[in-house]
Design brief:
Blueprint (H helix, E strand, L loop, with lengths): L23 H32 L1 E4 L5 E5 L11 E2 H8 L8 E2 L5 E2 L14 E6 L5 E4 L2 E4 L4 E4 H4 L2 E3 L2 E4 L2 H7 L2 H34 L5 H8 L8 H11 L17 H24 L4 H9 L4 H30 L2 H6 L6 H11 L3 H28 L17 H30 E3 L3 E4 L14 H31 L4 H12 L6 H12 L13 H11 L1 H13 L4 H8 L4 H12 L1 H17 L15 H10 L3 H33 L6
Antiparallel strand pairs: 1-4, 1-11, 2-3, 2-6, 5-10, 6-9, 7-8, 7-10, 12-13
Helix pairs in contact: 1-13, 1-15, 1-16, 1-17, 5-8, 5-10, 5-14, 7-8, 7-14, 7-24, 8-10, 10-13, 12-13, 13-17, 14-24, 15-18, 15-19, 15-22, 15-23, 19-22, 22-24, 23-24
Amino acid sequence: MSVTADAAPVRPPTGRPLRAKLGRDDYIMRGYMLAIMVYLVVALAMPLYVMLSKSFTTYGFDLATYEFQVSDQAGNFTAPPVSAETLNRELGAVPPEKLTTSSDGRLPATLFFPDFAFRSPVLYRIRGTTAGATYLIGSERHLGTEWSQVTSNDFRRVMLRPVASRGLDNFVSYFSTPALFRSIQNSLLISLISTVITVSLAFGFAYALNRSCMRFKGFFRLVAVMPILVPSLLPGIALVYLFGRQGMIRELLMGEEIYGPIGIVIGSVFFTFPHAMIIITTALAISDARLYEAAVSLKASRWKTFWTVTIPGARYGLISASFVVFNLVITDFGLPKVIGGQYNMLAVDIYKQVIGQQNFEMGAVVSVVLLVPALIAFSVDRYVQKRQVAMLTTRSVPYQPKPHRRFDWLCFSYCGLVAVFIVGILGVCQFAALVKFWPYDLSLSLKNYAFDVMDGGGWASYRNSIRMALMTALIGTVVVFTGAYMVEKTKGFGAGRSVFQFLAMLPMAIPGMVLGLAYIFFFNNPANPLNFIYGTMAILVICTVTHFYTVSHLTAVTALKQMDIEFESVAASLKQPFYKLFARVTVPVCLPSVLDISIYLFVNAMTTVSAVVFLYSPTTTLASVAVLNMDDAGDVAPAAAMGMMIFYTNAVARLIHVAISKGVLKRTQAWRFK
């Protein structure tokens, strides 16, 4: 049978496109991913939404919603009711600007009765003219339009309560207050100056490590990361001992004060230096030696080679380091609180508004203002990273520096100066922790470690920090790594994975102070079913895991992307459930990253201040917060001692991490060492 040339072409059958059938593992993985998405929504998105809503909420006294009636001396109510608004119009008792208040505002009803006497036999009645009108009689709350009758003695305890409204009044008030608005300028200026200095110093340090043959590179790398192990408050304390009014070398400032921008910049350079150095070192480590060989063959000078080869190759690392440092400085709270003096910064303004003035709405406004530059810096950094192209290809030749005696000694001297600066700051803190009474009695003693007799914290705070850090490391590592596994290995479900990735990246752009304040608004609401965790260790762990979620998530995703997708195919062909593959293959292969996530969360949980300063209770005080409280109470030396305890704890944790890594990895990943 032959087929004619003009036969009709075969067309595929029409109908709905075929879709892969989901298995049991797919449903379980999607369900687990959705569960972690719910966690991120509850622990991050919803608190931020509530805080944003609070920033647009204003409170004021609506006098038209209250009516009073006063009896005669015999207790008979013959006079007609009169509104508080009418009384205020006649008397001018409360000026218009005093009618604006906070959510906790109270207005005494006696202000509208100039002839009031609490011993008078006169009786008073009060009611609301609307169902939402609220007032207090003592501590008892009354609501609605029913009359409440009180004696003169009780009437002096009647307080009108404000009503909420929505608008931009809080922002108008903020930007029209010169002292508050100046904080924006101060924060931007300090962040820019600190970024330029830190990135410049870090580039020189990273360049010396990667482009020279100097000795003791391992030692210098170790010293460079030490500031990560201490809370940001500690360099402020050291600078007080060095350059304060009774400082060791205060003459070097030539009459200038360390309390203010100078101290903030120096301290910021100290605690942001390792972050910039690590990023720039990574950028310089992937250079292609062929470019430098081409420059030599073209007889280009070392200076021209530096600007035409080295800088362009490291430009993305420099940009990323700049935005990371800028973000760290502008959102930091501890350092400007300790050494800022009267130089206001945005993060400190949030603390003052919430703790000092109990003005939560204005604190929310400052948080939104602080959120803007942080989000911009984060967004630009992510955009730059997406534009980065691979600098190291399969044909690339790794760059190997050649010995150059003069240049190597120059690099060694430079790194030595930086190391002296870092070790010197830590050494001064340790010296301050051991001196009996600076500067009058310089004999050494351990009395500053008697934290239980100090104001602001005790050994219980230190134990709470270790407990919280361990819980954060354990719970956070499990949640982050398994969540990253689900989002990377789940088949299909593109919309859900995109939402998950967005929520996972969001914490990096949220300053700790903003997140902590958002938790107050969200979890401290009695109507919230999760209100029971407020003031407990659980909320500190949740806040800390959420605050440092992004870096941990990126670490896990990077490790998972290095695994071949054929592992899943083989497991499916053998009809093995995903959790067996996860436990027997994925976790052992990714164990270095799992351990890195755990130590990252532990160290940051020990040093964090801004994210938890609003959330601790008398029974859950932390060591980092105790440093702040002791410094506020004037116990500067004990504050330094507690800060050094945090440093030593993190150092020991790092050593344990290294030991465990070497031992466990040799057993579970013998293939790496062959």
